Amino acid sequence: IFEEAGCNQTTLAGQITCLKAVPSQTLVNLATVARYVVQDGTIVDTEELDVTNKNGSTADVNVIFGTTANDGASFSTYPKVNVTSEAQGIELALGISAAYAQDIINSGLFPFYDTGNLTLDSFNVSQRVATDKTFRCVDEATVYAGATSGAFKSAYYYTITRTYEGYDPNNLGLSGLSQGPTEPGYPYGDPELPYFRLHGSDLGFSYGNQYPLRDTQDLEASQLISGYFAQFAKSGNPNPSLRYLQVRGYTNTTQGVRESGPWQPVSSKTGPTKKLDWPAPTVIFPDLPQCAFLNYSIEYYFEGGS
C-alpha cells in the first residue's frame, strides 16, 4: 500500500505521515487495499479476538452479526459449461475435488432442488456450501461464543431474506436470479419468486433507501429493517420503542415490530436470531447441522478453533 500510494520515505514515521495525506478515494482504488483489521497496538492490541473468555481483551460493547441468505452465491463460480452431473457442477462451482463434491452430496445436508436446469441446480447447492463455509458458520460460532462467554456485552444475529441485486460476478441478474424474475406487474422482479440473496444486496433495506421497490413489502421491509439497525446504532439494542414509533407516525414499522415480536439477543446454541423480511420472524441459527459437517460447529471456538 505504501508503494502504490507513492509513500516511499526512508522512515516508517514518514511513510505513515505520507499515507495520512492520501485521499480516501485513492486508497480504496489501489490494487492493494487494507482488507483486514490492522493490529495497531492501540485500538487493536491482540493478534486475534478472544471470544471464549471475558478477560478485558475485548471492548465492552453490543454487537450485531448476520448475512444475506445466499452470500456465497457471489463467491462461487457459475459453471461456464453445461454440466452433466450434480457432482461435476459442485466441483466446478467451488473449485474442489470430485471426492469432496461427492462427500457433500453423500452428506444429505445440502438438498438438490430439480428445476430441470442441472447447471443452475448444482450451483444452488454449491452456493449454500459457500455461504456456510465462508460467512454463516464462522459468524454463528463467533456470536455464540462471545455471547455466552461474556466477551460481548450482548450479541444479535440475523439473516436477511429480502434483498435486491448485489455483488454479481456471475451475472445472475441477467436472468432475474438476483432480484426475482420479471413478471407482469413486476418490472423489477417478483420478490416472492426464487432468487439469490447476494452479497451486498441488503444495503438498500439496511439503510432504508431501497430503490426500486418491487412491491409494497419492499417498502415495508425497508422501513422495518432500517429501523432495527438505526435503533441498534443509537442504543446497542435493535428493538425500537413502540411509543417512539407511534409518536413519529411510523405506522408500517409499528405494525412490523408488533407482528415480528422482540429481537432477543443470542443466548444459546440455537440463537435466537431474526430472519429480516416483512415481517421479521424469530428463528434458530440456520444450517447448524451443515456447519458441523463443514467442521465449523457452533462450538467451534470453545473446541479450540481459531
TrEMBL record:
SUPFAM superfamilies found in the cross-reference section: alpha/beta-Hydrolases
Domain of life from the UniProt record: Eukaryota
Region Disordered, annotated ranges: 255-274
All residue ranges annotated as the Carboxylesterase type B domain in the record: 3-273
UniProt-listed Pfam families: COesterase
Entry protein name: Carboxylesterase type B domain-containing protein
